[in-house]
Amino acid sequence: MKIGILTGGGDCPGLNAVVRAVSKSALKKGWEIIGFRDGFKGLVENKFIKLKDRDVSGIIIKGGTILGTSNKANPFEYTLAPFGSAKSPRDMSAKAIANFRKNKLSALIAIGGDGSLILADKFYKKGLPVIGVPKTIDNDLAATDITFGFDSALRVATDAIDKLHTTAESHHRILIVETMGRYAGWIALRAGIAGGGDIILIPEVPYKDEDIVKAVKDRCKQGKNFSIVVVAEGAKPAKGKMTVKKVVEGSPEPIRLGGVSYKIAEMLDKEVHLESRVVVLGHLQRGGRPTAFDRWLATGFGIKAAEMVENKKFGRMASFKKFQFTDVKINEAVKKLKRVSPNCQEIKMAVNVGTSFGNRKITG
Ligand code: F6P
Hints:
The chain has 364 residues and is an alpha/beta fold.
């Protein structure tokens, strides 16, 4: 047997742990394994490396991906040189399929978020034996209880909140920490709870300026002349839209969010006597070594994916549910995002320790 593996979309701590687990497991079974360079770009351009044990030894601790990745390589609407451009995308899927066949592969393992998994499913529908592995720091895939990378992002965000408490308290300031997470508020919610954030703003609970101001003023009345506001990049006002930072042409998910915290800082500067400062965590949340939990989870996903190849469970994605590794259909997995429910236990938990969600309707 010979199998191919690729990592697509944004990088995320734990990708290398999956590549290692799949490769070691495949090599142990006597299979050959090749890793395509830069996600689906490598499949279109037939650029890959043969993975041997020494290539994947010692990589479990490394962030990023040794294979490289791309969030612009959509083989069905290819915009990358030399085949296409942003103005004239080309369908390069036939070339990708031809490369798969030319390399005499028995299966392709695609590790990615919803964008890459949709592409994986399109190839499955065109006859390729594809298996998906979910990755995203956003933890927004409904078909799995958790994705690797999320815990590592939480570590970074919680650490940042802990550190920012020092200046907030000493200077009597409002420190606004902006997290990633796209359309889901998981990173802001969990890091906000873990770091003791005073106000948490997430996309699923639209905020009201006056309710944020009230929360800050209520804290001042209690003698707490500082506040930590944890804001998800997708947070939006009750009568408004999310803040779009830029649009990346050619990306399967072109919208990039970011900058909502500056709007909140500007508003607070007008309404309260405390000075506001903004820290946008950005790609720090995707960087560095994966946590122990993410290494463990990613290893489990990799072993599961290799087992799925052996059992010919194509068109399916490895998933982790109720502390068991299992599998689900890729097309079911990408149908719906997992978002925070405003009535969930976690929100109640936070409200019960005094956290405001910038919306007086959220009372726990
Ligand atoms: O999906 C992961 C993620 O990091 C999101 O949280 C964020 O909105 C987006 O990717 C950023 O994308 P890029 O790396 O292209 O700026």
